[in-house]
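Notebook B, p. 112. Complex prediction, attempt 2.
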Amino acid sequence: MKLSFQKSSLLNGINIVLKAVPAKTTMSILECILIDATGDDIKLTANDMELGIETTVEGSILERGRIAIEAKLFSEIIRRLPDSEVIVEVDDNLRVSITCEKADFKIAGKSAEEFSYLPTIEKEKYISVSQFTLKEIIRQTLFSIAPGDVNKLMTGELFEVHENELKVTSLDGHRISIRKVSLRDSYADQKVVVPGKTLSEISKILSGDSDKDVLIFFGRNHILFEFDQTLVVSRLIEGEYFRVDQMLSNDYETKMTINKKDFLDSIERSVLLVRENDKKPIILNLQDQILEMTLTSMMGTMKEEILVNKQGKDIMIAFNPKFLIDALRVIDDENVDIYMVNSKAPCFIRDEEGSYIYLILPVNFNRS
Amino acid sequence: MKLSFQKSSLLNGINIVLKAVPAKTTMSILECILIDATGDDIKLTANDMELGIETTVEGSILERGRIAIEAKLFSEIIRRLPDSEVIVEVDDNLRVSITCEKADFKIAGKSAEEFSYLPTIEKEKYISVSQFTLKEIIRQTLFSIAPGDVNKLMTGELFEVHENELKVTSLDGHRISIRKVSLRDSYADQKVVVPGKTLSEISKILSGDSDKDVLIFFGRNHILFEFDQTLVVSRLIEGEYFRVDQMLSNDYETKMTINKKDFLDSIERSVLLVRENDKKPIILNLQDQILEMTLTSMMGTMKEEILVNKQGKDIMIAFNPKFLIDALRVIDDENVDIYMVNSKAPCFIRDEEGSYIYLILPVNFNRS
């Protein structure tokens, strides 16, 4: 095999597939990037068996072939080369030579035979969504999965398609995040649970361009994202997702409308008094049009007031401040509406159109 | 005590003295910043007993007094406050109240009695140097101290003043770095060893402005740096520094002039093949006007060539690539001259004027 690339194209391709190279593994072939130039294109692939990424890189095929190369070393070498033409050549002993101007690296490759190619997904059921929308919806929900949970369903997000609506749900036992977006077309119903890790990696690769689309294909056990010159394939999480609808309600006793930035700034200040695993609640005391927030810990006390718009009853309720922060950070509205029933029932942060719902359970607190 | 500040002034002062707050200590008073407003100015001080920093902060004294406050918490609270007026008030129980707009923090202070003020240094012997020059000379030499060495002298740098010249030397057993700068005036001779940690912290505080000066005062056991509104006092390291002059020599068999950037880029690429504690040398083979560099490790082989200007004999010599990288990174010249005798003797990277000398010992290598 002998290939020629511009350094920047090759590096860009490597950076994309690198997201599917596991940090630690006992199977050394998984730490490799496969370069496949057996056809008319040059394809780079990495695959950790849960998540696989394939991308096509511009370059010239001087001699066809394929090789697996240790991903980290390969990426570091390419990154450090001068911004010029790079030649990657493999001899019969799988010895890889990387040359660029006067620099010449020789490293050991691995047989492509060992490498697991991506599974093939039937391209029947799909939706189309802009890169911007997909990236945003992931950012706005991913924080409330439970990454290490024994219940695998909590480590992923529910993707639901109904007609022209995509709805994404995540939950971790203390809170639920739901985002809905409208699609340009109507599609067949879908309901799959996508691993959080896949979504986290894919959102790093997405350009976030609103003019470019992502095609999402739904297979039986896999999901495939296709965009730019790249394919991302991931296993789905099996099982019946939680019945979230039963936990939602539109009833409330108190509706508070508050400036989002002021509210977020105050809560972020309050957590300065909380050290790591010390779970101190922030107590919200809403009386008339004034929200008083207090947090007391070993380190001291913080008290702040914000003028709000209140409808309904006064209320005193406490939350884990981190949960409020997580939700408020991903809401772009200037003001948010918060709906509460009593100090034991969940609060809902949601907009009129129902494009987002953040449910957060309150915590017990000492009223003194 | 009751003081009023603009948030930005207070935060700026805190960030300066924070450099002298130790990360870990068993004496909790050392983790504090002292606010002293017993006189006409508001002074912040931190002191870890080796290094002490005092800075004057703009603000209004509404009621005189002093208090010690846990540095980390104090700095985080101030950082998060709105950009507005901050009031710091202490009651008779050493309870500190920090208020800013609608935010009100209450935290515990500590008695200023416990706090160790900075030692007083006689201001007889001194030099004046620009902030830019001091910051640069530290950057250009500090990398070759031996921070954890049992020989305390190796953990510091020798500062020598002779007439109108300041010379700074550091060494770690494998290399020596020397930088000289001219001062605007002539001063009495000085010779002190300053702890590396002091120099590292001070260079973070120095603005690097070439229009602003630093006064350096030499005490018996301490050195004092005075600049802007800030005093930095450090203990000196006791003992007789190494006789570096004996190790320097102007004799050479080979002089190589090489483009610094090309040389540095090549060596930086070569170390991609070296993992952590794997000490692989880079072999320089200089023949005629071509420098060939090779590095071979478990991971592979790298070979590069650079056209150079050579005077004298051909030579083959090997170095720890890190040592070449460290020296080349702090030299701003486009081309560097490297003087060598043979493969067992140190090489010297130095300029004509003698403003810098970097001595590096070679390592053994396999000629095959």
